[in-house]
Amino acid sequence: MPTLCIDFGGTEIKLGILDGPRILASTTVANTGTMADLDRVRDAVDELGRATDDSSIGTVGIAVPGVVDRVNGTLVAAHDKYDYAIGRDLREWATHSFGAPAVVENDARAALVGETTYGVAAGTRDAVMVTLGTGIGTAALIDGHLLRGAHDHAGILGGHMTVDLDGPACNCGNAGCAEAVASTWALRRDVASDPALAASPLGERATRGRIGLRDLVETRDAPAPAALFDRYLRAWGAAIVTLCHAYDPDVVIVSGGAMRSADAILPPLSEYVDAHLWSSSHRPAFVTPSAPQYSVILGLSALAGRPDARDGLHRKDDQ
Q1: Residue 307: pLDDT band by 50, 70, 90 thresholds?
Q2: Which is nearest to 207 in space by CA: 219, 216, 194, 198?
Q3: Which of 232, 239, 245, 249 is nearest to 285 (CA)?
Q4: Confidence of residue 310 (pLDDT cuts 50, 70, 90)
Q5: N or C: the chain end with fewer CB closer than 10 Å?
Q6: Is residue 113 part of a domain?
Q7: Hey, is 14 helix, strand or coil?
Q8: Are 159 and 177 in contact (CB under 8 A)?
Q9: The pTM is what?
């Protein structure tokens, strides 16, 4: 039976009904950051079922941008738009709403599973994922196993590694995190606080609407954005060096909207990492997904097909 995959993203919620890697139907729902989003998801799923001429769902996969307690199927910690979901039993919500068992996972881990199962790194057993966007999401796969840790925090906080001891405060409570130095929210702060950037082509784009990392890449020929782009590359590289030292991957998967300009990012990023890794460390391949918008739902489809994931792995009553 098909799998219903729900990717709770930063600006929108992506929904898909999948049969393995095959996407039977998909749609999006605006993320308003309120409980009403859950009702809109239910309505959208009903429409998807009609679009596939099949309302039956075998399993549900749910991805959220935060720390997930997989024993209880809850979101432990997140920032911004998902405060309403913290502590809520999302597996129970899915079972009640769609009549099927569910698996809940961090979105970066799900994306990593999607790309190493069906995507650009299919078959790879040792990989790290780095998603550059509003924040910096990471995940690690070691010998075919997702790294989760004793308290479900392992591997996913790579964006909160310190890359600048004297750097700006991060919303996580740390200072100088890679995310605080070189993410979309950091970019908006940098442009607003630097007159040279505000007067540059990047600043002009900011006056016309919200800017993202791709805007930085596309304006890097101007002096002020060029200097900032170099700083961001070094911050991303420093974080990836640490991920490689920690997890020793064969492949580094770099994703996010900025990677539409992968030709401008991957070569210098790979060069930085190669130059700063421990002398005998493996130099991993750098790849980027061909369809990053589907990485998470493909990963959820794969995870939902695994009996151990569907059962929540280590249930409290089994310990």
Answers
A1: low
A2: 198
A3: 249
A4: very low
A5: C
A6: no
A7: strand
A8: yes
A9: 0.92
- Do 93 and 190 fall within a single domain? no
303-310, Cβ contacts within 8 angstroms, sequence gap of 24 or more: 303/61, 303/103, 303/105, 303/110, 303/113, 304/3, 304/5, 304/59, 304/60, 304/61, 304/102, 304/103, 305/3, 305/20, 305/59, 306/103, 309/103, 309/105, 310/59, 310/101, 310/102, 310/103
Domain that holds residue 135: 120-288
The answer on 283 and 158 residing in a single domain is yes
**When comparing pLDDT for 73 and 294, which is higher?**
294
Inform me whether the pLDDT recorded for 198 exceeds 90: yes
Query: Residue 99 — very low, low, confident or very high, per pLDDT cuts 50/70/90?
Result: very high
Mean of the per-residue pLDDT values of the chain: 92
List Cα–Cα distances, 192 to 25, 211, 225, 288, in angstroms: 41, 11, 13, 30
| Alpha carbons 260 and 263: distance in angstroms, whole number | 8
SS3 240: helix
Contact 251, 127 (CB under 8 A): yes
pLDDT tens string 132-173 = 999 999 999 999 999 999 999 999 999 999 999 999 999 999
What 3-state DSSP class applies to 277? coil
Regarding whether 125 and 100 lie in a shared domain, the answer is no
Is residue 114 domain-resident? no
Domain count for the chain: 2
**Sequence letter at residue 272:** Y
pLDDT at 313 (0 to 100) = 37
Query: Looking up tokens 């990989």, which residue turns up?
Result: 127
Provide the token pair at 192: 């607003």
Residues 258 and 310 both lie in one domain: no
